[in-house]
Amino acid sequence: MKVKRYKKVSRYLSFYINSFNFRQPYQLLIDGTFCLAALNNQINIADNIPKYLNGELKLLTTQCAIIEMEKLGAKLHGALLILKQYSLHKCGHERHPISGAKCFLSMVGKNNEKHYIIATQDRELQSKLRSLPGVPLLYLHSKAPVLDPPSETSTKFANLSLTERYGVQKTEQGTLTEIKAYKEEVDVNKKPKKRKGPKGPNPLSCKKKKKKIGDINKECVKKDKNKLKKKIRISKHVRDELLKSSINNT
Fold this sequence. Notes:
The chain is an alpha/beta fold. Helices cover about 55% and strands about 10% of the residues.
């Protein structure tokens, strides 16, 4: 694959990743027309498409797409076998199957919330999907897979704000503005935090100051004075004996 082509694909995918939260593994929803084109051009979808998109893929289809291929007859038997290799995704039409195009449109919905990449050669389906936001289209041009550039609806939708995207009501907008104003008032009234000054050195890590000779002498003098100040205590029985001996002497 040429470098320009690779850059285009990565740019388109990054648009869907940033604007519509697409994530790997990408969910590739494949119909019978895409399998038929791959069979005619001898393209292995499971090998070539992940290399082209440069990412992990989940190859999916629906029961409606398989039933539609079965009704078209034996000429499409090879494409039907390819389609049946992929994981069957629940579409909700199991009891009352519909056409593959209608099934895919119902799977995508209004905003493609489940982030499908649609692989189809159906021109009518492609034009309908381009009118919906956030739907990547993949098709085969002869033997080369092509990721369609983002449509105008997708780019316009990506540029809208959240309130415009999801239709926030006027009452909700009023409450949002009130909340913002309240937050601003709270931030203004908050007292600024006092910055802590530089801490002193750790006393354990500091070296002890060396004492001078004069200071040592002073400390010794103080110790001697304290010793002199201390009273000599005499026990009771010694006092009594001293008193008796003094009385006897007199």
